[in-house]
Amino acid sequence: MDLRQTIFKAQHIKLPPLEQSETDGKDWSPLPWSLYFETQRTVSVSDTNFNVYASGTDNSGPIFVLHHGAGHSGLTFGLTSKHIYNSDPQSYTVVAPDFRGHGATTGNNQNDLSLDRMVDDLVGLFDALFPNNRREVVVVGHSMGGAIAAHAVSSKRIQNVRGLVLIDIVEGSAMDSLPSIPMFINARPQTFESVESAIRWHIESNSIQNHESARLSVPSLLVPINDGKRMTWRTQLLPTEKYWKEWYSGLSKTFVSAPTAKLLVLAGTDRLDKELLIAQMQGKFQLEVLPLAGHTVQEDLPDRVGDIVVLFWKRNRPLNIPVTRL
């Protein structure tokens, strides 16, 4: 189910889920980040203290940088990160930050989610984590995070990028969906009685289809209300509406022209706009379609996404061919 289908469901909120799930008797308690990452640390860049989850930071192999979408957090990649890291824990590094205005990240100007500011954040955070980097890098972004990743890679401000991965974001469908997104946001519950009730809502509404991932990621999306008895959204999305168009406008061209190998992972029925369709036919990027996933593809099918990303890097890494002297 892609973003347009999600919005359609919000417009017809009384419709039952596409697949009924048995939720009674399930454990809705939160899961700790430490089951999925080795470390959690604060990294200060400019006016922001970024909360960063990571594994394998002392390794010397490829670095996988994972940028979440609007309203999510680094923990949306928790299961995917663990799967990538476990593919080669002696070599791989995975990094999944909470970006400005999200998760446990704090600082000034947290409501400034402009494209330029977010790109500066990604580049500045990478430089702080990996100064003078010479290791190969794969930058992965989901939804809005894909737009930030594409612009950062295209600017050539991150060194040694070997691959760019966009997850469930296409300029054409994103731009078409913009007028309906406020309706989708307003259709969500504005408060929850508890973290457990929020986890359950995400599963029963099909916002997230993976029970384990919901237990990990959803708590980071919430903050307590002043009365201390209820929870509300950590990131208020409607005030960011003024930035939505700039996130996605021109994204297809930016993605196709990025000076690295490119991979687009879509949730089934999303459509390629004209520029992407032509580029895909010309073999300018790899396309993977996962029709069983929802918009949060990396949460619904984390092992599959992890395998796709790792194989993509392996396919595009440089060959070390020994030189034979005659």
List descriptors.
about 325 residues; alpha/beta; nine-stranded mixed sheet; three-stranded antiparallel sheet; 12 strands; about 35% helix; globular; disordered N terminus
Shape label: globular
Number of helices: 13
Could you estimate the helical fraction of the residues in percent? 25-40%
The first-to-last residue Cα distance is 58 Å
Number of strands: 12
Structural class call reads alpha/beta
User: Which ranges are low-confidence, i.e. pLDDT below 50, for 5 or more consecutive residues?
Assistant: 1-23
| Mean pLDDT level | 91
Describe this structure in words.
The chain is α/β, with parallel strands linked by helices and 326 residues long. It contains 13 helices and twelve strands. It has helices spanning 3-11, 78-87, 115-129, 144-154, 171-177, 181-187, 195-204, 211-217, 241-248, 251-257, 274-281, 297-300, 302-316; strands at 39-45, 48-55, 63-67, 93-98, 106-107, 137-142, 161-167, 191-192, 222-224, 231-233, 261-266, 286-289. Strands 1, 2, 3, 4, 5, 6, 7, 11 and 12 form a nine-stranded mixed β-sheet that branches. The chain has a three-stranded antiparallel β-sheet with strand order 8-10-9. The longest helix has 15 residues, at 115-129. The radius of gyration is 19 Å and the shape is globular.
